[in-house]
Amino acid sequence: MVRVKLYSKEGCWLCDMALDMLNGQREKFGIEIERIDIGSEGELYDLYRYDVPVLSFADGTTLNGHIKKKALLGKLEDNNEGI
C-alpha cells in the first residue's frame, strides 16, 4: 500500500494528468490518494502555487510539476509498504 498526498488546484491539467497516472497504478500498489486543493489563497497556495501538482510520499520525498511516469513508478516502489 502506498499513501500519496496530491496537492492540486482547479483547472490544472498537469494535476489531472498526475491523478490519472496514480489511478492507473492504484490496483498494482494499493494507492490511497488524499487530494488537497490548495485554493486561491492561504499558506498552501503560497507554498505550492508554482509547483502543482505536488505528490508527497510517506518517506518525505515529493514529485512536482510535469511528473514523468518513470519517476512516479520509482517513488511508488520506494514507498510501497506491502499488504
Provide the low-confidence segments as ranges: none
CATH third-tier fold name: Glutaredoxin
Proportion in helices: 25-40%
Secondary structural class:
alpha+beta
How many β-strand stretches?
4
* CATH level-four homologous superfamily name: Glutaredoxin
Largest sheet: 4 strands, mixed
What fraction of the residues are assigned to beta strands by DSSP?
A: 25-35%
Number of helices: 3
Q: Describe the oligomeric state of these chains in a short phrase.
A: single chain
Text of the CATH class: Alpha Beta
Q: What is the domain tally?
A: 1
Spatial ordering of strands, largest sheet:
2-1-3-4
Mean residue pLDDT: 94
What's the CATH architecture? 3-Layer(aba) Sandwich
Please state the overall shape, judged from the principal axes of the Cα atoms: globular
Order of helices and strands: EHEHEEH
* CA-CA gap between termini: 6 Å
Radius of gyration: 12 Å
